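For this section, I looked closely at the sequence of one protein beside the tokens encoding its backbone, which the following lines show:
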Amino acid sequence: MSTSDMIKMALRNLWKRKLRTFLTILGVVIGTASIVVMVSIGIGMNESFQQQVEEWGSLQVINVSTAGGGMVSSVSDSGSSKDKKQATEITVSTIEEFKKIPGVETATPVMSEYLYFICGKYMADASVKGIDPSSMEAMGYKVEQGRGLEEGDNNTLVFGADVVTGFYNPKLSWEMRYNSPSPEVDVLNDKVMITTDWNYGTRNADKNVKPIKVDVVGILPSSGETGYSVFMPIKALEKIKQDQQEYEEKKSETKNTNKVKKGVYQNAMVKVQSMEEVQSVQDTIKAMGFQAYSLTDELETMKETTKMLRMMLGAIGAISLIVAAIGITNTMVMAIYERTREIGVMKVIGASLSDIKKLFLTEAAFIGFVGGFVGIIVSLGSSKIVNIIAINTNSNMLSSIPLWLCGASLIFATFIGIAAGYLPAKRAMKLSALSAIKTE
């Protein structure tokens, strides 16, 4: 029996019992739609968590800090561990070691300082983050206007959009500042200066602290923490911090024991090439004696919290498909009882046992395939409804159906159909030809 003849016969047999075939396919449709929608909710929750965490920063960036007494091994060329030292500092050589770790794209030391900005008669304040200018774009900081920091920049700033809208008149009272609209300030074209004196512009200003003229070259979008930050070359920020500490020493006539050392830092950022490599790079950095944290840790924690819920959703969908499989088995068993004489005739005229087996498996596979295909279409519509409800209720239970899930569901539904029809097909093979022909 040729393949085309077998397919035609299978379709003809199913069409003879339209109602039973329809109801059996309907069970597969419901089962497939259930499992796809349930799994898609789990996928949607993970994507929602990832999108939420990505608003806080890049998932491929690892924040490194000194362990404050952690031990790190110095390894010789032969690989043996020598005397150990405390990883209390991050230096230029440390950054180079980070860059050599497999999977690392770039690394930069980081320094933070809270500074005040002057633009005409207005002021603003924000945390300034000093980084290596050449690594800014690689770290995922994309400017909305202007450009980012580049190699060779000195007193150059890139503002977060929320800092730009935070300028105020320092001569106004706190209540008037709060109730007054934000002034329009063009930091890209107007003269901008920075100072460490938070009283600047008032009668209590320190006249010995001279503002430093800077160039604002770019503005970052209003997104998470980045929108409230300002970036500048780390060497320029390092000099500002050193000058401030020297001034405070002279002013107080006491020596600062925590004075900033040139080329020595407490923090760094490491950019990894892909999310899959973040954990291994993070573990390597920890083994070097440093503390390492990335937003992927937060993401995994959020996923772990909802793991049980996602497993329950998948189990509910699987139960529906198992019920559908039982329906297919029942349909095929009933078909054997009703077609006993037909099976006997097929054996008498020379149909092989494998042909009979393939015929029943083809019918079962067709039921599974059609039910799976229609189930995917139903699940796509159901997914849209779930998303509309989730958006209106501000819920994280969004539904996302990727292409691979559709393909996997179709294959799985077809496989379920074949598996459910296997035992009935075996039963049909074992029927005696003579007894089958005698059956009325």
